[in-house]
Amino acid sequence: MPYWRMSSFYLFYFASVGALMPYWALYLQGLGFGAVEIGQLMALTLATKLVAPLVWGWLADRHGRRMAVVRSGTLLGALSFAAVFLVQGFWPMALVMLLFSFFWNAALPQFEATTFNHLGDQVHRYSSIRLWGSVGFILAVAGLGSLLDLFGAALLPPVVLTLFVLLWLASLWVPERATAYLPLEQGSLWRVVRRPEVLALLGVCFLVQASHGPYYTFYTIYLKEAGYSGSAIGLLWALGVLAEVAVFLIMHRLVPRFGLRRLLLAALALTALRWVVIGLFVASPSLIAGAQLLHAASFGIYHAVAIALIHRYFTGSHQGRGQALYSSISFGAGGAFGALLSGYLWSGLGSLSIFLFGAFCAVLAWLLAWYAVARRETVL
Fold first, then answer.
1. Domain containing 335 — which CATH number?
2. With CB atoms 3.0 to 4.6 Å apart as the test, which of 61, 70, 263, 349 could cross-link to 320 if both were Cys?
3. Is 234 part of a structural domain of the chain?
């Protein structure tokens, strides 16, 4: 098993996420964009996840060459992002962000399918590979916090471009044979999607990522305006992902003991609590740090459960599109909706409103999960 080859891809992919998601809004603010424009631009990068993973997933499932899709997406994403150094104004920036995110967002769902296929019946080992993505995120977000304090947000584009190039190089290291493609004839994908438990799971995924939209778009700006330094903000981001890493290390024990359904419900309840604490207690560093530890639940446990169920529901020739659909509905549609609406809420009602909106989405997700998700799915 090419453990380190696959882990290196996660390392650089999520290092690029750790550079983009926490700090790109700050960079856009430095260019003079307002809250609504920042929300629109960030939503645009997330909205490409509605289309890109499905397009590339269809190609991968049709031809059985998932790593070719990953390599093409990462290379074209890096080349498209390089144009950010040449553009000015809202619409040129929107075009660049649309292009690079369309290619960049093609990579992860297909690599997730590659990872699960290569693991075979050892899917419990997924977390030990995926945790290197969390390590990459931590290194990027913690390191950049201090660097941006010293050199300003203009440093961000060259750092992101470097990480994109390293990601493409890492994709060359993973052999195509690791996909273990099985061209099974299983009928229409819609047959799987329309099952009530699958529809409910996708609805939960949409709501969870909608609740994260305000966090990924405005958390850095929110803390900056509350008086936190760049280094402190970076450490807070890193703290959340450290908690995520800790969960990934023990998920193989949590699932057999508690079951997927109970873990999902607990994660959603703690997600709602997290957004309430961030919204109401920003003046308390200790409470904000405590809220960051809840990232272990709001992303770590939630994602591990969701992706395990997606892998179970979408099998054989549907695997690539199943992972793509999960990415499209949650990180794409849900994330874009949350980012876009939070821009308008921040502009019209203030910063508290965006985190209360996030808590509301998490509560709705809990209710839907309690009613319909994984009632019989208690173990992996």
1. 1.20.1250.20
2. 61
3. yes
**Residues 61-112: tens digit of each pLDDT:** 676 778 888 999 999 999 999 999 999 999 999 999 999 999 988 888 888 8
- In this structure, the dihedral spanned by the alpha carbons of residues 29, 35, 41 and 44, taken in order and rounded to 10 degrees, is 150
Rounded to two decimals, the pTM is 0.80
Contact at 8 Å (CB) between 56 and 325? Answer: no
Q: How far is CA 56 from CA 17, 67, 104, 271, in A?
A: 20, 11, 11, 31
Instruction: Answer yes or no: are the C-beta atoms of 249 and 296 closer than 8 Å.
Output: no
Distance CA 373, CA 364 (A): 13
Provide the domain count of the chain: 1
Phi, psi torsion values for 368, nearest 5 degrees: -65, -40
Residue 379 forms part of a structural domain? no
Domain range holding 209? 3-174+190-372
Instruction: Give residue-wise pLDDT tens across range 273-296.
Output: 999 999 999 999 999 999 999 999
Tell me, yes or no, whether 292 lies in a domain.
Answer: yes
In angstroms, rounded to a whole number, what is the distance separating the alpha carbons of residues 273 and 125? 29
Can you read off the two tokens belonging to residue 289? 């740090």
CB 167, CB 5: distance < 8 Å: no
> Cα 86 to the chain's mean position, in Å?
27
